[in-house]
């Protein structure tokens, strides 16, 4: 079995792909589903999301870390955590994570959203589905590598290596080195450029929430099908 | 002063850019100039290089690690090292390094080629030219991050931090972590996917050569000007 970590989205993904955007899209996605949402629709653009408004969907997302005008929610797991989304579909669009998911879905068949909060469950799901290769793709921030995503990839890579034999690529090697030498999750996330920016925006609680390790067993799972609105990807709890 | 490390070419470079392709383009480029070459012409494609043949230029390059048909040399520092290139211009085209140089030159003004062999000299040149930001760009291998380039970026980042105050981005943080936790240069290069592939091709001597640290003070330096053949970048010893 091979393990590949893309420090930025690249394309040409194998059967099994884990998409990471720890701060904050994939962390928030896990929370929406944990709090009862039926499904998530990740859109290619904010406009696609806004076009779905009024059809019984809730809209969540951000640009530059801040909520998008016309959206119901930002991209905050702390904001989502106390709510009850039972029976609701949440339409998400964010700066990096939703785009990375669309790249992954172009060729990946089993596409999962992963964060620190569901890291162990995500690794087990990926291992269970994989036949030849697991790819982990880090969303990054504005096309730049994000320490928080590489650290999370290293955590998941460690879990995978504990679950079986893998040959690893240079991206995985780098992620494992970062994971083992950047302190605990909160220290790693806080030292990242994106973590510092969120704290400056008053969103430090989201950073602390995103640094909780393997507290959820929910793994957002792509459902392929024709009944999905154009420009969206449908994820359900897995 | 800011320090930015791109683990893959990205674009939008500031004044000062160091391009790294340790295995082997930038290492070989340093060797050509050390061995007396007047200049290097880095071409955008092998065809541009072949079009210059017969005009008194020597051609060096590779695809898949092997020499290109019609070229005079491969992309091997060990092959170049015993030769005398005095009075010659070497036209280079390689899989990753020459392309990364063209990306860097689109916006960068002071563009230098860096490797482990000239790491300290390259850091000093970059520091001397920079006013606001130094960018280090890793060429990678076939659009994938290469451990050998990230390690080299970490070495140069360490030198830069010893030369003055820098605020660093996540890429630099990752490169420094990799540099400090991947063993000595030969261990790091040997453990990279590209290093292993070169050894399998019988090019292990090139890997050993490329792992020598700061043995050269030659820094290939981009010379902007109109008298350069179309599709090429001209570098001279600096």
From TrEMBL, chains A, B:
Keyword terms, alphabetized: Hydrolase, Magnesium
Statement: the UniProt record of this protein carries the keyword Calcium: no
Gene from which this protein is expressed: comB
Family stated for the protein in its record: Belongs to the ComB family.
SUPFAM superfamilies (alphabetical): ComB-like (SSF142823)
Catalytic reaction list: (2R)-O-phospho-3-sulfolactate + H2O = (2R)-3-sulfolactate + phosphate
E.C. numbers: 3.1.3.71
Protein name stated in the entry: Probable 2-phosphosulfolactate phosphatase
Pfam families (alphabetical): 2-ph_phosp (PF04029)
Stretches assigned to coiled coil: none
Domain of life of the native organism: Bacteria
